[in-house]
TrEMBL record:
It is an enzyme of class 2 (transferase). The gene is miaB. This is tRNA-2-methylthio-N(6)-dimethylallyladenosine synthase. It comes from Limimaricola hongkongensis DSM 17492. Residues 6-122 form the MTTase N-terminal domain. One of its GO terms (cellular component) is cytosol. PROSITE patterns: MTTASE_N, MTTASE_RADICAL, RADICAL_SAM, TRAM. Coiled coil: none annotated. Catalyzes the methylthiolation of N6-(dimethylallyl)adenosine (i(6)A), leading to the formation of 2-methylthio-N6-(dimethylallyl)adenosine (ms(2)i(6)A) at position 37 in tRNAs that read codons beginning with uridine.
Length: 442
């Protein structure tokens, strides 16, 4: 007789790459007889796929682990694993601090999860935070053919060699590695066969992808060009990009590649040259602004988003005003902004000139107000215009569907459920707090 499948509950923290990694970990553990569940209490294994980017995100993991204690007491066979960047950064220490944890697996080792799970099944504990020679994506060649929703992430590049002074990513995710084009294209084909219409290419430095393709300088533009030839794949996005890796080919692709959506997340972090230098960003505010001009020349309606850090060590009022000026000049569609959080092992954490928390709060509030106003303006500018929408799921109201516009705005439309997974033209009729409303056009 077949054994009943074991149940796996994964909680994903942090960035989109973790969302992708969680899917792949679930697939890897599928080989050990696990199916995923949305209900933590019925799980045989709980995996926390963690984020180390800011202190708050990392500490949340420990409080969530503490909250698993009663469940582990009620179900002593429950396996608890910590994956992702906290696992990479803290390794063994997690086992010491949290005796209920059975396994710790870094982001480069999740293809080894089945072996680790088996070891835990025999009563052991397991830690793997190597950067192994064997490629985890190669080891997890095929993806299951199950039907999927219309959008998917696909990791094409991992790691970062930029070493921004505040950032743990080069330490937790390691050096930049690009996946080979043929593997990416075949994974994309598989996703499209399973019903995917829109793929977001992921990488910590996605536009530094340097694969093995001819043309368009061999960079991400060439890969986008290859993917655009896949019938049935209608939309392509990519994130996250460093300004210094926006090459001519990629900028031009925004002008001529119809499947490449008019949306670009291009973090700048600060508008002050002094702070950009201290952050080791290797560009000035002016260079960033000129880059934006070139991108907008190629694709005038492109929507730009960014990340900002306020209160980087040594940031003065004048530095912060320079950030506000840059934001006013660019006019973003939306953006994330964070208070600087000192991360162990990063150069900025050593600096003596940490900014007062109350000053950081004040700056964050002002920046978020400005960015919020810009988001509202960007949404309102859509009212009365037509765009295409890829419908993803039913809305909250009966007879309503929700999907994403080309500019990645959520749009609510009165539409039949049969439009799920389809792209339709929609006229935008209103703008709400975080989404748009529209009606099917023509
Ligand atoms: N403190 C605050 N924000 C940070 N980020 C990265 N490291 C830190 C840090 N130490 C932000 C950056 C980055 C985004 C993913 O997280 O803005 O672009
Ligand atoms: Fe971190 Fe900078 Fe690399 Fe982005 S480019 S992952 S902020 S080091």
């Amino acid at each position: 007789m077949d054994q009943a499948p074991k149940k796996l509950f994964i909680k994903t923290y942090g960035c989109q790459m973790n969302v992708y990694d969680s899917e792949r970990m679930a697939e890897a553990l599928g080989a050990s007889g696990y199916v995923t569940t949305e209900v933590q209490d019925e799980a045989d294994m709980v995996l926390l796929n963690t984020c180390h980017i800011r202190e708050k995100a990392a500490e949340k993991v420990y409080s969530d682990l503490g909250r698993l204690r009663p469940l582990k007491e009620a179900k002593p066979d429950l396996k608890i694993g910590v994956a992702g960047c906290v696992a990479q950064a803290e390794g063994e220490e997690i086992l010491t601090r949290m005796p209920l944890v059975d396994l710790v697996v870094g982001p480069q080792s999740y293809h080894r999860l089945p072996e680790m799970e088996a070891r835990v099944g025999q009563g052991g504990r397991a830690v793997d935070t190597d950067f192994p020679e064997d490629d985890k994506f190669e080891a997890l060649k095929t993806r299951p053919k199950a039907k999927r929703g219309p959008t998917a992430f696909l990791t094409v590049q991992e790691g970062c060699d930029k070493f921004c002074a505040f950032c743990v990513v080069p330490y937790t995710r390691g050096a930049e590695v690009s996946r080979p084009a043929a593997r990416i294209v075949s994974e994309a084909r598989g996703l499209v066969e399973a019903g995917v219409r829109e793929i977001t290419l992921l990488g910590q430095n996605v536009n530094a992808w340097h694969g093995d393709l001819e043309g368009a300088e061999g960079g991400l533009a060439a890969l986008v060009g290859q993917l655009a030839r896949i019938d049935g794949l209608e939309r392509i996005r990519y994130t996250t990009s460093h300004p210094n890796d926006m090459d001519e080919g990629l900028i031009a692709a925004h002008g001529h590649e119809a499947k490449l959506m008019p949306y670009l997340h291009l973090p700048v972090q600060s508008g002050s040259d002094r702070i950009l230098k201290a952050m080791n960003r290797k560009h000035t505010a002016e260079q960033y602004l000129r880059l934006i001009e070139r991108i907008r020349a190629a694709r005038p309606d492109i929507l730009l988003t960014s990340d900002f850090i306020v209160g980087f060590p040594g940031e003065t009022d004048a530095d912060f005003e320079a950030t506000m000026d840059l934001v006013r000049e660019v006019r973003y569609g939306s953006a994330y902004s964070f208070k600087y959080s000192p991360r162990p092992g990063t150069p900025a954490a050593e600096r003596k000139t940490q900014v007062e928390p109350s000053v950081m709060d004040d700056r964050l509030q002002r920046l978020q107000k400005l960015l919020g106003d810009q988001q509202r303006a960007a949404q309102e500018a859509m009212v009365g215009r037509e765009t295409t929408v890829l419908f993803e799921k039913p809305g909250r109201l009966p007879g309503q569907m929700v999907g994403k516009s080309e500019h990645l705005f959520a749009v609510h439309v009165a539409a039949p459920e049969s439009l799920r997974g389809e792209i339709a033209r929609v006229r935008i009729t209103a703008s709400g707090p975080n989404s748009l409303a529209g009606e099917l056009a023509g």
